[in-house]
Amino acid sequence: MTSPSHPAPVDPQLLQILVCPVTKTTLIYDRDHNELVSTAARLAFPIRDGIPIMLVSEARPLDEGEYPAKP
Fold it and tell me: Can you name a GO cellular component term (predicted)?
């Protein structure tokens, strides 16, 4: 069983092929928060038990200043 301090690992190959379901842009893996971040959509998708949950309804909006969008 995993805990928040020891999340299940995510397959690195999976991380390379996943894109944001909204913008189809690449994602940033935030190991500290166990999320995949889309700076373009300003959303963070949770990873639960090593499985990325790529549903907009499950994503959290990024706070202002969190992961500034690239120019």
Answer: cytosol
Question: Which residue in this structure is represented by tokens 């928040």?
Answer: 4
What span, in angstroms and rounded, lies between the C-alpha atoms of 28 and 38?
Answer: 7
Contact 28, 58 (CB under 8 A): no
Q: Which of 36, 9, 31 is nearest to 21 (CA)?
A: 36
Alpha carbon distance 34, 2 (integer Å): 12
Measure the CA–CA gap between 11 and 57, rounded to whole angstroms. 23
The CATH class given to the 12-61 domain equals: mainly beta
* CA angle at 58 for the pair 16 and 55, rounded to the nearest 5°: 50
pTM over 0.85: no
pLDDT at 28 over 80: yes
